[in-house]
């Protein structure tokens, strides 16, 4: 596990330029706002968060971190995008969200400083944006307590995912800015499962996320061919 430089400056710049729009539910981040209740309910169905210490890796503007704090969890959101973190902090103040704080630090650096600290770690929609996703997975495994839960979400790498998540979402439906995702950085479930095993995480459940562009409706099911989530525990 590396402790520095596991980030792409172009990716940080991309999200920093959009930082002021994180909490605009009709902006480029509309999909994150729409899927957030689904993600939170899925996590809470496996481990009720109230009273737990939770880490959100790659928190961005704090959409998931803020929601988890509202369940009664003690949440730390971390990211390397300075502008996004400032937006997250400002929103927490304006919304008077208790139990959430933010820090500009990498997952690897925090893992070196605070191993085995958190009951739950989430890393959603982030692995496909870093040079070495296996290092992030290992850091998450290091940060969670033995018996704790780690949740991941990312995008599969196959022809269907390219058609739906990149061509469809970015170039046809304009749901996301063009260039948000790079096909080569997408991660197959088998690859993510391998990263988890190598880091001492046991896969407990997988879920796919689907979208109907006509009804603008999202739902969870067993199809992991495009967007998918992993629920794991630390041995």
UniProtKB/TrEMBL annotation:
<comment type="function">
    <text>O-methyltransferase that catalyzes the 2 O-methylation steps in the ubiquinone biosynthetic pathway.</text>
</comment>
<keyword id="KW-0489">Methyltransferase</keyword>
<feature type="binding site">
    <location>
        <position position="58"/>
    </location>
    <ligand>
        <name>S-adenosyl-L-methionine</name>
    </ligand>
</feature>
<comment type="similarity">
    <text>Belongs to the methyltransferase superfamily. UbiG/COQ3 family.</text>
</comment>
<dbReference type="GO" id="GO:0061542">
    <property type="term" value="F:3-demethylubiquinol 3-O-methyltransferase activity"/>
</dbReference>
<dbReference type="GO" id="GO:0032259">
    <property type="term" value="P:methylation"/>
</dbReference>
<keyword id="KW-0808">Transferase</keyword>
<dbReference type="InterPro" id="IPR029063">
    <property type="entry name" value="SAM-dependent_MTases_sf"/>
</dbReference>
<protein>
    <recommendedName>
        <fullName>Ubiquinone biosynthesis O-methyltransferase</fullName>
        <ecNumber>2.1.1.222</ecNumber>
        <ecNumber>2.1.1.64</ecNumber>
    </recommendedName>
</protein>
<feature type="binding site">
    <location>
        <position position="124"/>
    </location>
    <ligand>
        <name>S-adenosyl-L-methionine</name>
    </ligand>
</feature>
<keyword id="KW-0949">S-adenosyl-L-methionine</keyword>
<keyword id="KW-0831">Ubiquinone biosynthesis</keyword>
<feature type="binding site">
    <location>
        <position position="39"/>
    </location>
    <ligand>
        <name>S-adenosyl-L-methionine</name>
    </ligand>
</feature>
<dbReference type="Pfam" id="PF13489">
    <property type="entry name" value="Methyltransf_23"/>
</dbReference>
<dbReference type="GO" id="GO:0102208">
    <property type="term" value="F:2-polyprenyl-6-hydroxyphenol methylase activity"/>
</dbReference>
<dbReference type="InterPro" id="IPR010233">
    <property type="entry name" value="UbiG_MeTrfase"/>
</dbReference>
<feature type="binding site">
    <location>
        <position position="79"/>
    </location>
    <ligand>
        <name>S-adenosyl-L-methionine</name>
    </ligand>
</feature>
<comment type="pathway">
    <text>Cofactor biosynthesis; ubiquinone biosynthesis.</text>
</comment>
């Amino acid at each position: 596990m590396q402790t520095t430089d596991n980030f792409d400056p172009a990716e940080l710049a991309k999200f920093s330029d959009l930082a002021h729009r994180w909490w605009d539910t009709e902006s480029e981040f509309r999909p994150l706002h729409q899927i957030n209740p689904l993600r939170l309910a899925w996590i809470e169905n496996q481990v009720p968060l109230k009273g737990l210490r939770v880490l959100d890796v790659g928190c961005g503007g704090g959409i998931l971190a803020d929601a988890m704090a509202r369940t009664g969890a003690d949440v730390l959101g971390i990211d390397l995008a300075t502008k996004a973190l400032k937006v997250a902090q400002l929103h927490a103040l304006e919304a008077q969200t208790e139990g959430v704080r933010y820090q500009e630090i990498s997952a690897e650096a925090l893992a070196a400083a605070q191993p085995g600290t958190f009951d739950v770690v989430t890393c959603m929609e982030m692995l496909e944006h870093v040079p070495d996703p296996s290092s992030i997975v290992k850091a998450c495994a290091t940060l969670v307590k033995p018996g704790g839960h780690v949740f991941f979400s990312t995008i599969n790498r196959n022809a269907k995912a390219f058609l739906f998540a990149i061509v469809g979402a970015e170039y046809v439906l304009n749901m996301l800015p063009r260039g948000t995702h790079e096909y080569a950085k997408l991660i197959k479930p088998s690859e993510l499962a391998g990263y988890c095993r190598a880091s001492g995480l046991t896969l407990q459940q997988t879920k796919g996320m689907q979208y109907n562009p006509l009804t603008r409706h999202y739902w969870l099911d067993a199809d992991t061919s495009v967007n998918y989530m992993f629920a794991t525990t630390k041995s």
